[in-house]
Design brief:
The structure holds two protein chains of two kinds.
Chain A: H1 2-25, H2 30-41, E1 52-64, E2 66-69, E3 72-75, E4 82-96, E5 99-112, E6 121-123, E7 125-139, E8 142-155, E9 174-185, E10 188-199, E11 202-203, E12 209-210, E13 214-215, E14 219-220, E15 225-235, E16 239-250, E17 269-280, E18 287-300, E19 306-317, H3 320-331
Antiparallel strand pairs in A: 1-4, 1-19, 2-3, 4-5, 5-6, 5-7, 7-8, 8-9, 9-10, 10-15, 11-14, 12-13, 15-16, 16-17, 17-18, 18-19
Helix pairs in contact in A: 1-2
Chain B: H1 2-20, H2 69-83, H3 87-97, H4 100-115, H5 146-174, H6 179-182, H7 202-217, H8 222-238, H9 244-266, H10 277-289, H11 320-325, H12 337-351, H13 355-365, H14 372-385, H15 392-420, H16 425-428, H17 447-462, H18 467-483, H19 489-512
Classes of the chains: A mainly beta, B mainly alpha.
């Protein structure tokens, strides 16, 4: 059952990080990766059962030296390597077998290896997701499922958005809708998902700013985003492993100008690849570990981040029924 | 299942509601009312000019009589436009009706932000220097850094002011009423009716003088500026404020007056402010000969100092000898315990910055890609002036006072910075990380502090009711550099005093220019 929990959380995380993605994306692909990790590990075809609850934490380390200034790939000797780290706390609860709710909040800190820019830290965006599994059918010799996920995230602290790439987020409140199609046959599975993220405007500390023109306001119009994710992998009793590709597109925004600093409403696009695993301890299925690695292969106004993540989850079985299920799993 | 449907419905509803919310961001000055001057300042033709020796240095021929065939043709042109004003025409009228001085100031702030980007280094670690002779090649000319920006704001504002003084001189001399006063079938559209004579048109004077100044200051933008100038003039005609002959005379007057400022700009030493490698080395040698650790660039690779000879640029409010006389005493010696303690103080405030401190630093940072600190003070002033119901000529007078102050503050500050060539806190104590980029020039005294207190001083004179606010803003702007890790406290304190002294010269001018 912990798998379920983790999977769900991961699913959530997938959404969650989406938000964060943006937030951090610019130069902090870290959280993006976080999301990916979870998405990876998560088998979307499985929901947590009613009244089950699981919680966990994931540590993520993301860094980049090269980044895309618009479409021009470059480095910056006055920043060196920019590192974003985060610890994300997450929880997942089964309202019913087909409806789960998930929440999380990351603590994020940034650092530049060269130059003089000061790192920043703080709680980034708290998120809440609802995941629903409306369709489960047999198809061929496998099982086909569709999931619908709705998410909400908003800044959990009044963190700065004016000091990119050292800022920890972009400060938008987001609503996300995601559809996931999942097919599993034997130990193999494949998954495809698409997400639309509606982003609120954000505000910055400056009273005026320049994008492609002057704006005399501290409010910044933020374009929406879409993400697509595809993965293939194996799903075994204690191990889930997958490789994936993730594509993020900002539906508007502008390019960083030559030698300018990044800005919250830049057009941040990226394509990344990654591999993620989840392992449930055979001797105690309450516990599971996740790990992932992601790398941005192409981008625009984002850092070419390499992201590593590792996390652990613990499942609580609150009903006698679940305890029984758990016991039977263990017995297996 | 019901529960699930319920949640799902809520989710869909939330997304629909959210998607339907308009995300358009509205600019603070996008929808302001048309200019409605409390006082037409009909005596402004007698106000003290900056460069013009007389308001009628450039002749403007007497206008045609209002019953002449030429003028009747002018009126027919307006009537023809007014029969078919498009929404876009009306938008442009509304935009320019808020005030030409305001709109050109906003446009200029945008240009400064657009061009305020330091060049990328060459492959060999040297840096290219923008060239006015080849402005479209990278690095684009200009690099509108704070000194460059301060000078650009000052030249445009001062030229606009002289041009409008001359404009007012001829308005009262010839006293030809606005088209809507002469013909009852010409309507004041999107503007307020006044008794201000319309020959020559103040809108066209502003369009002409500003378009001409941009040839000096932002050569890549001449085409765009020319288009804006034509829009302003067309809006004036379509609104019923000006006849074609008002426009033609006004634009010619504006362009002629600009030539005096362009001639001054070409010989004010700004073109030499970049200096030479020999100059750059000399600053180091002088500092070392005095037993001081010289400033060095903290950028990688090291970048030549920003406009080191800007202190030699010819000021507007006083002469170059006064620049030297405004120099404060030296900063703490780089070998002293004082500077080490001062650096420790900076480290103390920067080590774990509070959210509030970070906000203050970012609010005043005005760094790369922004309209610079002088632009910030233009923004502050303009938004307060909007509430004052000034005439165009008073608008320009006050903006000219502000911007001549800011330019001269920049000159004085740059003179001090390169006279002492004092290291930044991070150079003395490398543990000091900063909450905004460290500007590429010496530390003592703080440019933000000098700019801000000079601006606060003249603005407090112009709007005494706001004096407390301006002083508090200047204090905060100065402090932002200390809590951002950019400056020692002494840089800010002394900088505020220097700026106040510079501002005093502007106040003296304001009290004697005939406008008060």
């Amino acid at each position: 059952m912990i798998e379920t929990c983790i999977k769900n959380i991961l699913t959530v995380m997938k959404l969650l990080p989406v938000k964060i993605k943006y937030t951090l994306l610019i130069f902090q692909l870290c959280l993006i990766s976080v999301s990916s990790v979870f998405a990876q590990t998560d088998n979307d075809a499985i929901m947590m059962n009613k009244s089950q609850w699981c919680s966990g934490a994931v540590y993520m380390h993301s860094q980049w030296t090269n980044y895309w200034e618009g479409t021009l790939k470059r480095n910056n000797l006055n920043m060196g390597t920019v590192t974003t780290q985060s610890v994300m706390l997450m929880s997942n609860y089964g309202i019913t077998d087909k409806l789960n709710i998930m929440a999380g909040v990351p603590y994020v800190w940034t650092h530049a290896s060269a130059g003089t820019l000061h790192g920043l830290s703080g709680f980034q965006d708290a998120s809440l997701f609802i995941k629903w599994e409306p369709v489960t059918v047999s198809l061929g010799n496998g099982k086909f499922s569709v999931f619908a996920v709705g998410g909400f995230s908003t800044p959990a602290s009044n963190y700065d958005r004016s000091f990119l790439p050292m800022s920890i987020g972009l400060g938008t409140t987001n609503l996300m809708g995601r559809l996931i199609a999942y097919y599993k046959k034997g130990i193999f599975f494949m998954r495809a998902s698409g997400t639309y993220i509606w982003r609120s405007n954000t505000s910055i500390d400056q009273s005026s700013y320049y994008t492609t023109e002057m704006h005399n306001t501290n409010e910044v119009e933020m374009p929406d985003m879409m993400t697509f994710n595809g993965s293939v992998g194996i799903y075994k009793k204690f191990l889930i492993a997958e490789v994936m590709v993730d594509k993020m597109t900002t539906l508007g925004g502008f390019d960083i100008r030559r030698n300018d600093m990044p800005f919250v409403s830049n057009r941040m696009n990226s394509t990344s690849v990654g591999a993620h695993v989840k392992y449930t301890l055979p001797f105690d299925t309450h516990l599971a570990a996740v790990a992932g690695a992601d790398y941005v292969i192409h981008g625009r106004n984002v850092g070419q981040a390499t992201t590593l993540s590792i996390g652990a989850f613990y499942a609580f079985y609150t009903s006698q029924k679940e305890k029984n299920r758990h016991q039977s799993t263990k017995a297996n | 299942m019901q529960k699930q449907s319920f949640f799902f419905t809520i989710l869909i509803a939330a997304i629909v509601v959210a998607s339907s919310c308009k995300k358009n961001v509205s600019d603070r000055t996008a929808n302001i009312a048309a200019l409605a001057p409390d006082n037409l300042d009909l005596n402004a033709g007698t106000w003290k000019t900056v460069l013009l020796s007389r308001p009628d240095t450039f002749a403007v021929a007497a206008p045609a009589a209002t019953n002449s065939t030429a003028y009747i043709a002018d009126l027919n042109e307006i009537k023809g436009y007014q029969k078919n004003l498009s929404p876009d025409n009306r938008d442009k009228i509304k935009y320019w009706a808020a005030g030409g001085v305001l709109r050109w100031n906003e446009i200029l702030r945008g240009l400064v932000a657009k061009y305020n980007l330091p060049p990328v280094q060459n492959a060999d670690g040297t840096y290219p220097i923008p060239s006015s002779a080849n402005p479209f090649a990278y690095p684009l000319f200009p690099f509108a850094n704070p000194p460059y920006a301060a000078r650009a704001y000052a030249y445009v504002s001062a030229a606009q002011y002289d041009a409008l003084v001359a404009c007012w001189y001829y308005k009262t001399k010839y006293n030809r009423p606005a088209p809507y006063k002469i013909d009852s079938t010409v309507y004041a559209t999107g503007i307020n009716k006044t008794d201000l004579p319309s020959y020559p048109s103040e809108a066209a004077v502003l369009a002409g003088v500003t378009a001409e100044m941009m040839k000096l200051l932002f050569p890549d933008e001449i085409a765009n500026i020319q288009q804006l100038a034509q829009e302003e003039e067309l809006a004036a005609i379509q609104s019923g404020a000006a006849a074609r002959s008002d426009i033609t005379a006004g634009e010619a007057l504006g362009r002629q007056i600009a030539q005096q400022f362009i001639a001054r700009g070409r010989t004010d030493n700004a073109s030499k402010a970049v200096g030479t490698p020999a100059d750059w080395t000399n600053f180091q040698n002088v500092a070392m000969s005095l037993g001081q650790i010289p400033w060095y660039s903290l950028e990688v690779p090291q970048r030549p100092p920003m406009l080191p000879l800007f202190g030699k640029v010819k000021p507007f409010l006083f002469d170059s000898a006064t620049v030297v006389s405004l120099r404060p005493g030296p900063p703490p010696s780089t070998n002293s315990d004082t500077i080490k303690k001062d650096a420790q103080d900076v480290y103390g405030v920067i080590k774990n910055p509070s959210t509030e401190n970070l906000k203050i630093v970012q609010f005043w940072a005005d760094g790369v890609g922004t309209f610079t600190p002088p632009g910030h003070w233009n923004s502050i002033a303009a938004e307060d002036f909007i509430k004052q119901n000034y005439s165009e000529v008073r608008w320009s007078r006050n903006m000219a006072l502000l911007n001549m102050t800011l330019m001269d503050a920049g000159i004085v500050c740059w003179d001090i910075k390169y006279f002492y060539f004092n290291p930044r806190p991070t150079q003395i104590m490398s543990e000091i990380k900063t909450l905004t980029g460290i500007p590429n020039f010496p530390s003592y005294v703080s440019g933000h502090s000098v700019f801000s207190s000079s601006a606060a001083t003249i603005l407090s004179h112009i709007l005494p009711a706001n004096a407390g606010k301006y002083q508090a803003m200047a204090q905060e702007a100065a402090r932002s550099r200390y809590i951002g890790g950019i400056h020692y406290q002494v840089d800010c304190e002394v900088g505020l005093t220097v700026g106040t002294n510079v501002g005093g010269y502007a106040v003296q001018r304001a009290m004697s220019d005939g406008a008060e």
